[in-house]
Amino acid sequence: FSISGDCFVPNKIKLVVCKDSSAAALDAAGRIAVIVRERSTPVIGLATGSTPETVYAELVRLHREEKLSFRNASTFNLDEYVGLPSTHAQSYRAFMQAHLFSQIDVLPWRTHLLDGTAALPALECEAFEKRILAAGGVDLWLLGIGGNGHIAFNEPGSPVDSRTRIVALTPETIAANSDGRFFSDPAEVPRAALTAGIATIREARRVVLLATGAKKAAAVAAAMKGPFTESCPASLLQDHADCTFVLDEDAASLF
Ligand code: GLP
User: Ligand 1 centre and the CA of 113: distance in Å?
Assistant: First the structure.
């Protein structure tokens, strides 16, 4: 469907507010673990950024200490920087290897990330969508949120029916990712990325958006309480049948 301008939809987003960021991460990890245990061939959508790092640490702990097995799981990551090979420390492939894949029993060929060095990005994006379909669709997609309300690299203005594609990053997102946590100089940050689209994400059977810290409070409040609008990509989850925002108290402070 299409939208013209901002509109209001029945807001079905469920809200969980945890006392701090660790508790929020444990909650999100627990939701992923339920799917991994329940489904015979679980399909999990993953995110990068600082926020999910603790989620992945908890999944590794569950694997080591509580026998959580990813042997039959497939994973799909939201996005990847254009031009960064998987060997680059700041590629999202390298991030996922370091924080999760190398520490659990997921089979390497079932971990799907877009290839930011693909010669034909449009074909790479189309193939990614096909791989999701072939896996039977995503059971649960874990998301973060940008300070401007972006999800994956869907910046404000991303169409609700957008699919996996190449996008330009906004100066705000380039700045947020060059504050020393990942890149230390904006000039080092790629200007473009491949990203799952809003429609790609909305098709996941379950969505869990994890946001922690006061820096995310305005974006979370706009997504939850504002109109359903492409100006705030996360608001486009409002009519999803099974979407939960897992927040800490700081991220929920503008409610
Ligand atoms: C990047 C990623 C997003 C992520 C966002 C917030 O832009 N592409 O998927 O949600 O950063 O990241 P952080 O958790 O570091 O604030």
Answer: 16
